[in-house]
Amino acid sequence: MREKQVVVHLPQGLHARPATLFVKTATAFSSEIGLVKGDKSANAKSIIGVMSLAVANGETVKLTADGSDEEEALDKLAAFLEQGAE
Amino acid sequence: MGTVRVHGIGASAGIAIARAQVWKKQDQKISQEVRSPEEELARFKTASELALSGLATLYEETRLRLGQKEADIFQAHMMLLQDPELIGQIEVLLAAGNINAEAAVQQATGELATLFSSLEDEYMRERAADIRDVGQRLLSCLQEAVWGNLQGTAREEKGTSLDAVIVVAHDLSPSDTAQLDTGLIKGFATQIGGGTSHSAVMARALGIPAVVGLGQALEQVEDGDLIVLDGTAGLLCLRPDEEELSSYEQKRADWLREKKRQARWAELPTVTQDGHRVELGANIGHPDECRAVQQVGGEGIGLFRSEFLFMNRASMPDEEEQFQAYRQVAQDMNGKPVVIRTLDIGGDKELPYMNLQSELNPFLGYRAIRLCLDREELFLTQLRAILRASHYGSVKLMYPMIATLEEWRAANRLLAEAKETLARAGIPFDPAIEVGLMIEVPAAALASELFARDADFLSIGTNDLIQYTLACDRMNEQVSGLYQPFHPAILRLIRQVIDAAHRYGRRVSMCGEMASDPLAIPLLLGMGLDGFSMSASSVLAARELINHLSFEEMKELAEAALKLEGQEQVKALLLERTRVQINA
């Protein structure tokens, strides 16, 4: 089980297209991955969960991962949140 | 059961009389039987697979029929359907027992949709509708409905005959209308929505009446009820009595006769009795309206408002998406001119992704070209998309709300930059694309000569020009009487703009509501206006009127009108003269 704090740098925040891409990226890993904002957390593989956190640009979130590819998952998703989709 | 009248917003003109087909997602025959948790879970899994394959088919069909953009919604639904959070909630409910798959689906999707619709963000609220949509689809698959052949099933399920109907619905989403057999629809009536909602645009494209925003009262309508729909007055009459019915039948016959009588003008040019030709185009707000424009023989698109691309969404449309929309219009119009107006938006519109502050005076504030020149990336993206579309038809570019020559030049500098970017990338566009501007700020009207020097064309936007010139908000009932299209100041401004344009050999058209006013047309014609652009539904009447007028006589009329001292005198003169003209 690992976790990582990330400051989100996505001009539109984490919804619409970025949220879809984020979930697709997360789904590619076998680890269980969570996204935590304040006292709310969501399954990072759930578009409903991710969108309901309504993460805005500039906010700090925590990524958690538990599984065989947890390290790679954290790196990739953190990079996505910090640098944007494409 | 007496007659009920419901008032809404007339979104597409005309009168329809037909039985109602209430477009309700089926929720009436939900099974109450509860089997073991294992069996219910298995039922849910089967329904989920069925729904998924139905969506895949719908996605593919829609992509082929309507295009990628319209199909994307179904891909989003597929993602929701496979969402671990949603599935997890349903599984937890089922495992607890004493509940069937139908109820679990309803509860889980209902709770999630409620959660989403309570969020501030408009984009999230729209997702609530998607979650409900997915829930309905699962329910319907649990009922073993076949989603493969939607057009057929939709009709059979309701047991309605193949007669034409008026579709009555809460709202119609693109995914609903994709399932309708438009050949059998005589009109649309919806609870919510405004003039640019999907059903309104579609009704105008089909040339059938539509009334939207009818509210809760619409829930009284039942399948098979006789309905009169008056899209001109924005009225729905439920179960009319005999007297009303016959009066509306008369009105409908008149409307149809008038429509038919006017139809012959669709094929004819717009030319006065003495051979003076003007261009009669249409204003559109959505690419799908091109069909209606072609049907009335519109000679071009005098104003394509690009705002629709930016509304009701969470993020900026990218260059590709904009390009597809502009290209569709350019191609649909088959070489006829299409004037695309760059983004005309400001603090009065809520666009979450733009972070616009609400202003005390949005119409005098940060909007239209002012905003675009400040946000160069946004503007350059739109300019590139429009330029790329220019390769596929006769596209012209128009800037809104220009007040100073500096703005005009700054916009053109960015246009040059956009052209250079495309040229470097080897992307084709029309290098000689015509560029013009809206004359809607009084400063630009008074100084129109400065703009006429290097603009390819001018277009007078009367709605704003009148508001700004008379310092009157037409939506404010207490001062709306000051909104005077025939005020001598307005007539002089228009005259000045036309003269300035002609001095430099430029064409000048008008795309405000005044351009379709039968009282104003003779006057504008006489002042030398070269082009009129209006909603497609006004084109035939305008063409008929112009073809009955004499240009020479209208010149004299305009001279006389410009000497008068107030709107009332001008209107009286126009009423008098045009009546004589038409009866002659």
TrEMBL record, chain A:
<dbReference type="InterPro" id="IPR050399">
    <property type="entry name" value="HPr"/>
</dbReference>
<dbReference type="InterPro" id="IPR001020">
    <property type="entry name" value="PTS_HPr_His_P_site"/>
</dbReference>
<dbReference type="GO" id="GO:0009401">
    <property type="term" value="P:phosphoenolpyruvate-dependent sugar phosphotransferase system"/>
</dbReference>
<keyword id="KW-0598">Phosphotransferase system</keyword>
<comment type="function">
    <text>General (non sugar-specific) component of the phosphoenolpyruvate-dependent sugar phosphotransferase system (sugar PTS). This major carbohydrate active-transport system catalyzes the phosphorylation of incoming sugar substrates concomitantly with their translocation across the cell membrane. The phosphoryl group from phosphoenolpyruvate (PEP) is transferred to the phosphoryl carrier protein HPr by enzyme I. Phospho-HPr then transfers it to the PTS EIIA domain.</text>
</comment>
<feature type="domain" description="HPr">
    <location>
        <begin position="1"/>
        <end position="86"/>
    </location>
</feature>
<keyword id="KW-0762">Sugar transport</keyword>
<dbReference type="GO" id="GO:0005737">
    <property type="term" value="C:cytoplasm"/>
</dbReference>
<keyword id="KW-0813">Transport</keyword>
<dbReference type="InterPro" id="IPR002114">
    <property type="entry name" value="PTS_HPr_Ser_P_site"/>
</dbReference>
<protein>
    <recommendedName>
        <fullName>Phosphocarrier protein HPr</fullName>
    </recommendedName>
</protein>
<dbReference type="InterPro" id="IPR035895">
    <property type="entry name" value="HPr-like_sf"/>
</dbReference>
<dbReference type="Pfam" id="PF00381">
    <property type="entry name" value="PTS-HPr"/>
</dbReference>
<dbReference type="InterPro" id="IPR000032">
    <property type="entry name" value="HPr-like"/>
</dbReference>
<keyword id="KW-0963">Cytoplasm</keyword>
